[in-house]
Specification:
- By secondary structure, the chain is α/β, with parallel strands linked by helices.
- The protein has 2 domains: 9-113 and 193-296, Rossmann fold; 299-428, no CATH class.
- It is built from 16 helices and 13 strands.
- The protein has helices spanning 24-35, 69-72, 85-98, 123-127, 143-146, 171-174, 194-208, 225-230, 252-261, 267-280, 299-314, 319-331, 345-355, 359-375, 409-412, 416-428, and strands at residues 9-18, 43-50, 58-62, 73-78, 101-109, 182-185, 190-192, 212-218, 235-240, 288-294, 342-344, 376-382, 393-395.
- The strands form 3 sheets. The protein has a 9-stranded mixed β-sheet, with helices on both faces. It has a two-stranded antiparallel ribbon with strand order 6-7.
- It is elongated.
- The chain starts with 8 loop residues before the first strand and ends with a helix.
């Protein structure tokens, strides 16, 4: 049984380790990193870890320094579907009820693929056909089972590569589908999409009667305008990576050591600390990005991006401006294949400002930069391949627009998708 609620701490850290996939061993390493600092009277370090395989039980831990992992186990839940929103909600409810604190950091630990919620586990993955507009509208694909072949598992991804990325790059699957959501569970063949994540975080906010202080995403490609905008009303800050993350992910030992030395950190301070410690944990030759965003001031950035979309749509009929726009898209900082439909928003603005002479575009780019300077509280990178990363990426497809894009808050409340439609139609001509 969980312990009775103790006196309120400064911080409770809750890490949702969806490890029922090829990241299982990385989860074991990260638990050990968390234990190197562990729970104190100022900080509670909690984790829910779903192990790989149909016999891999899900366990809740209150992690402590100097004990065994087994002794840190507080509850054993059996096999769970970590892609189920209710499982995430139950974990957070358990954490805040039994380990109350002034501030909460919730970390979603798993594979990630930015905003795009195409379903890896549905038949379209194997056939290459267009994903359904509603991911939940179709049953899980059984094509592999029907044919007497096991479905493609995450454990097969990046076979033979020593540093597994926190994203799926199986060449077979990548040829059929480009992006996924977050918190993949191979046994349940499910994952959390961005619409579900907003709903469950809204429910958590109602229970807490306030926002989560920091929503951390220890996963690939989640530092996106579309993802952050989806989360703007349910968390104060969010931390994530524009690029794919190496298998090592966040350095929990470094982050928790810094927090233990100063448990009175504000949410903004801890967000900045996560970024700095993440970058410090990698070599100069590694290709990594990390940034922290103040979600409470994200709306002005969305408004500025919408105005930029209007300005760009207005110059598409001008040959010189259209050529400059195509050139900017060709040169902009983009991210690991097959995710190269994501590009850095501010690098794009810089290239547009240099290449397009129209005053409306220049004014709009300046407004995006100004709004971003307030929203992005910390940002950094290592590696020449990502040296034009400025903190937030945005969807800018090269060939076609995903039918799922219209389901997001950002597209419903901005004109960016309308610009993309017009731009891609122009390329078709």
């Amino acid at each position: 049984m969980p312990p009775k609620a103790a006196a309120t701490r400064s911080w409770t850290i809750m890490v949702y380790l969806a490890g029922d996939n090829n990241l299982d061993s990385a989860g074991v390493v990260d638990l050990k990193e968390m234990k190197s600092v562990g729970t104190s009277d100022k900080i509670a370090v909690l984790a829910q870890f779903d192990r790989s395989g149909n016999k891999g039980a899900t366990t809740r831990y209150c992690l402590k320094k100097g004990t065994t992992i087994a002794k840190d186990a507080v509850q054993t839940l059996g096999e769970t579907n970590m892609g189920d929103p209710k499982v995430l909600e139950d974990f957070v409810t358990w954490g805040v009820t039994n380990y109350p604190a002034d501030h909460y950091l919730l970390v979603l630990w798993n594979h990630g693929a930015g905003w795009d919620d195409a379903n890896l586990y549905q038949g379209d993955v194997f056939s290459g056909t267009t994903p359904p507009v509603s991911r939940k509208s179709q049953p899980v694909a059984t094509r592999g089972v029907a044919a007497g072949i096991k479905p493609i598992a995450f454990a097969q991804a990046r076979a033979g590569i020593s540093r597994t990325k926190r994203a799926l790059f199986s060449t077979t699957v990548a040829s059929a589908v480009k992006q996924r959501g977050i918190a993949f569970d191979d046994q349940a063949q499910d994952f959390l999409d961005n619409v579900e994540l907003k709903k469950v975080m809204t429910s958590i906010k109602k229970k807490l009667k306030r926002k989560i202080d920091i929503l951390g995403m220890d996963a690939c490609l989640m530092s996106m305008m579309e993802v952050y905008y989806q989360m703007r009303d349910v968390a104060e800050f969010s931390v994530g990576s524009e690029e794919s993350e190496p298998g090592e992910g966040w350095p929990y030992d470094r982050i928790l050591k810094a927090l233990a030395a100063k448990p009175a950190m504000t949410p903004e301070e801890l967000s900045k600390t996560i970024v700095s410690q993440y970058l410090a944990s990698y070599k100069a030759s590694d290709v990594v990005t990390q940034s922290a965003v103040n979600l409470s001031v994200l709306k002005p950035l969305a408004t500025a991006v919408s105005s930029l979309a209007t300005a760009l749509t207005g110059v598409l009929s001008d040959t010189a401006s259209r050529t400059a726009l195509v050139n900017a898209r060709a040169q902009v900082q983009e991210y690991s294949r097959p995710y190269d439909d994501y590009c850095d928003l501010l690098d794009l603005c810089d290239l547009l400002d240099k290449g397009i002479t129209k005053p409306a575009v220049k004014t709009a780019c300046a407004a995006v930069r100004q709004a971003a300077s307030s929203a992005i509280v910390a940002n950094g990178y290592k590696g020449l391949a990502v040296n034009n990363s400025r903190g937030i990426s945005i969807y800018f497809p090269k060939r076609s627009l995903s039918p799922l894009y219209s389901t997001l808050d950002f597209t419903r409340q901005s004109r960016w998708d309308e610009f993309l439609v017009a731009y891609l139609a122009g390329l078709g001509r």
